[in-house]
Amino acid sequence: MDALVFHYQFLLNNERWENYELVLNAETLEVVNRDNEPHPDWTRLEFNQCQHCPLQPQQHPYCPVALQLIPAVNLFNDICSYEEIELQVQTEERCISQRTTAQRGLSSLLGLLIATSGCPYTNYLKPMARFHLPLATEDETLYRAVGMFLLAQYLRKQQGQQPSLELDGLKQIYEDLHQMNKSIAERLRHASEKDSSVNAVVILDMFTNLMPFAIDENMQEIRSIFSAYLAQDD
Q1: Residue 233 in domain
Q2: Contact (CB, 8 A) for 67 and 73
Q3: Count of structural domains, the chain
Q4: Domain housing 156
Q5: Which of 99, 170, 209, 222 has the CB geometry, 3.0–4.6 Å to 149, for a possible disulfide?
Q6: Taking the model in full, what pTM does it have?
């Protein structure tokens, strides 16, 4: 089996390096090294379950997103969100290093974990997880998300399905993610001693909540860089 490996390293409190390695099946992007840690109460599906969650506790006793987050949350259990850390992310293609805050570094990891959790609402983000960009800016995230959605429409057309060049579908994806993030943040308030995990989700949700508005506003701002494609046909 071909695998994708994402290796996060955090220098915490300027004294200890903590490692988190995520291994994904390269074809399905399902996690193949999920930790078998105890499942705390805050991971149960019915604990602050999303109002729009389609899962039933009989078939899914635990929230797939919450289960995915357990090791990362435990890693930052005693770290305050504003503390400075050193972050290094290594993939097969590149290595990225940056000094940042605990909440921002953890937010980058949580974004990857959530996208590959198996939640019905986050499965749409798997293509972005495949081409993960640590510490992405709002503009980078917008560009990648829109590109992902439009490529998906091309693939739908190729297999005889109805494509949509409007971005309403992408807006709905992010509106659903916003609802999910709110519930996950509530779960994490019961999971950690400090606030780094909660604030990491809040940072993710800032992008998620703004995405529908950014799609409408920022498309005009980047229009000029596509001038070669928009030139009048001869």
Answers
A1: no
A2: no
A3: 1
A4: 3-223
A5: 170
A6: 0.92
